[in-house]
Design brief:
- The complex is a heterodimer.
- Chain A is mainly beta.
- In chain A, 0% of the residues lie in helices and 53% in strands.
- The N and C termini of chain A lie far apart (40 Å).
- Chain B is mostly beta strands.
- Chain B is built from no helices and nine strands.
- Chain B is globular, with a radius of gyration of 13 Å.
- The chains are: A mainly beta, B mainly beta.
- Chain A binds chain B through residues 35, 37, 44-47, 50, 52, 56, 58-61, 94, 99-109, and chain B through 1, 3, 33-34, 36, 38, 40, 45-48, 51-52, 55, 57, 87, 89, 91, 93, 96-104.
């Protein structure tokens, strides 16, 4: 059984930084593609970033240069370093793992609120 | 990197069938067989109901089916039940190595 626990969310002022963590059990993060998906208040799901098993990373245009996805294979943990945060980055951030060219949501997400 | 286009809402009565469309481009939906669909009830975590255009994960009802024609993918739910009322999202891989979701469709079961 795959278990995912996201953490690191909180209230930050515009321009601030946060680092989200995603502890995974039941699968090896380095063997799958792992992504962050977010859902803003009263908004739909938005794909944010992916790290493939080979280490390649990609981002949605609105976060390029501000967010960095990474993983620690020794801790089987995924990270999302976020800087220069904007009000529009306010959302619940889900850590999702790749399965059959799709995603599986297991964690409850972590809430990031950007407000002054 | 525009979101895939879905209707904002669809409505139908129990027992009827509905189809939700998801329109993209040659760079995403039309170019790959990697379209997936998610069911999202309020207060819960999104659930994968279709992967690779037409395949159902284990445990998903056979009332859910998927298809694709050109740049448009579709999710069909037959024999609608009250529990099917939810938000539905499509998602596709893109030629940039990224992924993109649709804007979401609210299914109302009358």
């Amino acid at each position: 059984e795959v278990e995912v626990v996201e953490s690191g969310g909180g209230l930050v002022q515009p321009g601030g930084s946060l680092r989200l963590s995603c502890e995974v059990s039941g699968l090896t993060v380095s063997s799958k593609y792992m992504s962050w998906v977010r859902q803003g208040p009263e908004k739909g799901l938005e794909w944010v970033s992916v790290i493939y098993s080979g280490g390649n990373t990609h981002y949605t245009d609105s976060v390029k240069g501000r967010f960095t996805i990474s993983r620690d294979d020794s801790k089987n943990t995924l990270f999302l370093q976020m800087k220069s945060l904007r009000v529009e980055d306010t959302a619940v951030y889900y850590c999702v793992h790749g399965i059959k060219n799709a995603f599986e949501f297991r964690g409850q997400g972590t809430l990031v609120t950007i407000s002054s | 990197q525009s979101a895939l286009t879905q209707p904002a809402s669809v409505s139908a009565s129990p027992g009827q069938s509905i189809t939700i469309s998801c329109t993209g481009t040659n760079s995403d939906v039309g170019g790959y067989h990697y379209v997936s669909w998610y069911q999202h009830h309020p207060g819960t975590v999104p659930k994968l109901v279709i992967y690779e255009v037409m395949n159902r994960p284990s445990g998903v009802s056979s009332r859910f089916s998927g298809s694709k024609s050109g740049n448009t993918a579709s999710l069909t739910i037959s024999g609608l039940q009250a529990e099917d009322e939810a938000q539905y999202y499509c998602c596709s891989y893109t030629d940039r190595g990224t992924w993109v979701f649709g804007g979401g469709t609210k299914l109302h079961v009358l």
